[in-house]
Amino acid sequence: MLWETFSVVRDLSRLHEIASILIKYGWGDFVRVLGIGTMLERAGRILHTSSKHNDIADMDPAIRVRLALEELGPTFVKLGQLMATRVDLLPPAWIVELEKLQSHVPPVPFEVIEADVVALLGKPINEAFAQFDREPFAAASMAQVHRAQLFDGTRVVVKLRRPGIDKKIEADLRILQHFARLVEHDMPEARRYQPVMMVSYFRRSLRRELDLLMEAHNMERFTTNFAGDETVHIPQVYWEYTCTTMIVQEELIGVPGTNLTLVREAGLDLPLLAARGADAVLRMILVHGYFHADPHPGNVIYLPDNRIGMIDFGMVGRLTDYRRQQLVNMLDALAHKDEDAMLQVLMDWTGDGEIDEAKLGYDVSELMFGYDNLELKDVNLGSMLNEITTVIRDNALVLPADLTLLFKALITLEGLGQQLDPEFHMVDHITPFVRDVIAERYQPAALMKRGRKSLKEAFEVVAGLPRDLARLMREARRGRLRIDLDLKRLDQFGQQLDRASNRITMGILTASLVIGSSIVMTVDGWRFMGFIGFLLAFFNSLWVIVSIWRSGR
User: Fold this and answer.
1) Residues 325, 337: Cα–Cα separation, whole Å
2) b/e for 496-534, b at 16 or more Cβ within 10 A?
3) C-alpha separations of 374 from 334, 337, 473 in Å
4) Which of 88, 172, 279, 294 is labelled catalytic?
5) Rounded to whole angstroms, how far apart are CA atoms 77 and 101?
6) What are the b/e assignments for 232-243, b being 16+ CB within 10 Å?
7) 294 given a catalytic annotation
8) Given pLDDT bands bounded at 50, 70 and 90, which one contains residue 502?
9) Is pLDDT of 363 > 60?
10) Which UniProt keywords apply (predicted)?
């Protein structure tokens, strides 16, 4: 039973706290539907299910969710920030509100973590660093950052994970996992959002973000990908001091992307910075398939000579080659106003769920019509992606998580570029990459690779056919062969069956007339009747062809 999973005291205490905060912000119905109050009462804990905060009750629901998530702490703030990337699920007003989420946590006093730092370094701090600032210059929900200096004069930053944060997050993740199962079981209307799968994805993502060693490896990978590129700089990692709970990395000395006034005063070329930043992230996406998933101004440092410095690689996205090809197909479909290609991309993205193809096709047609008279260079990529996600949301479809991260990164990147340069057009920068990817598809090596893959897959299907047929026949002999049919719109199905039967009948009649007329034509004196038969067969054939053509099937 679900109750048994909360037998640990700390989970019960946290569950009570979560439920109380949800009720405080007007989400008592959600708590009741999930049966959390009953569960806590069995454990001897009384939950007050009425909220006395009338001022909160008057707030917009999106604001109440944001405030509740902030009060619930780091795990839920991160969950809200992840949901802010789900433009396919939430309306724009909710996305805007969730993007405001912040963790209101004071930094951990250095005296509390000093012993841990010494243990991680394996030596006293003054033996590892020539200088170490005990006051952090940045603090977030999961880590805080201190400035330091090595003995060779190199300025570095030391990122330290907050002590005990992993245990708190794991407890929250256990509770969230059970919430998701309850929602999926008790709320049929929410099943299409796949809450269990979404929480599983969130758990993997958050655990990676907690692992600072993983972040260091991400930085190393990006450094390798941009080796030889003088326009992009990734901080160097000092591996001798880096582990799961601490990163020591080069400090980038430049102008923070959050302060445009300082950027202008530094004499930097803003349009060039916008172009270089866009090209860097697009190369990550369309060439490397491995991208910074949060390229907002706070994670960008503008360096001398108009170079782009990037920091905070805790959240990265990965695209398979197949996904990259789908993205290119979408952009190519838009460029060529190809509605069928765009429809196919959206259906591929949203998987095997129930799709009303007629409605989706109409919505795609309306979407494409809006860009009918526009050149590709005039398209606002962010607006287009928002319109695509609106189509997906209106058709009750769900995007894969990797694509939601990608869409969010592209929209953020375009906004960053336009802050630097009002004349910035993302599509101007993405078009050359799209052309290169399409050209690469038809290179001999790429064709040969796809051919080998297709041949291998075909061989595996053929090789497995006897085994599958044997299993099928065995199940049939045992009387256990089942065929599940989900017949929807049965009336329409019957009408289509009638039309198909009529066509088959006319086809058989036409064939009979042709054969009979051919025989009659060989008999002297009956050739005229044979000609009449051929004429009837011709008109019957014409009727069948026209009816098929008009049906579109």
Assistant:
1) 18
2) eeeeeeebeeeeeebeebbeebeebeeeeeeeeebeebb
3) 10, 10, 57
4) 294
5) 6
6) bbbbebbeebbe
7) yes
8) low
9) yes
10) Membrane, Transmembrane, Transmembrane helix
Please tell me the distance from the alpha carbon of residue 462 to that of residue 457, in angstroms, as a whole number: 9
Q: Are β-strands 307-310 and 131-132 bridged in parallel, bridged antiparallel, or unpaired?
A: unpaired
Cut 0.70: pTM above it? yes
Contact yes or no for 97/62 (Cβ under 8 A):
yes
Tell me which of 191-200, 280-289, 446-455 is least confident.
Answer: 446-455
Tokens (6 digits) for 376? 């590709």
Q: Nearest Cα to 401, choosing from 66, 87, 69?
A: 87
Structure tokens at 405: 């991260």
DSSP single-letter state for residue 86 = -
- Quote the DSSP letter at residue 377: G
Burial of residue 373 (number of CB atoms within 10 Å: 0-12, 13-18, 19+): exposed
- DSSP calls for 212-255: HHHHHHHHHHHHHHTTT-TTEE-PPB-GGG-BTTEEEEEPP-SE
Closest residue by Cα to residue 190 from 206, 199, 539: 199
pLDDT at res. 307: 96
CA 166 vs. chain centroid, Å, equals 25
* CA–CA distance, 202 with 81 (Å, rounded to integer): 11
Assign a CATH topology to domain 106-139+142-167+198-251.
Phosphorylase Kinase; domain 1 (3.30.200)
Q: How far apart are CA 367 and CA 386, in angstroms?
A: 11
Residue 103 has what pLDDT?
65
Domain boundaries, the chain: 2-104+168-197, 106-139+142-167+198-251, 262-441, 490-551
| In the chain, % of residues over pLDDT 70 | 81
E strands within 120-163? Answer: 131-132, 138-139, 143-149, 155-161
- How many Å apart are CA 20 and CA 27, to the nearest integer? 9
240's tokens: 């001798």
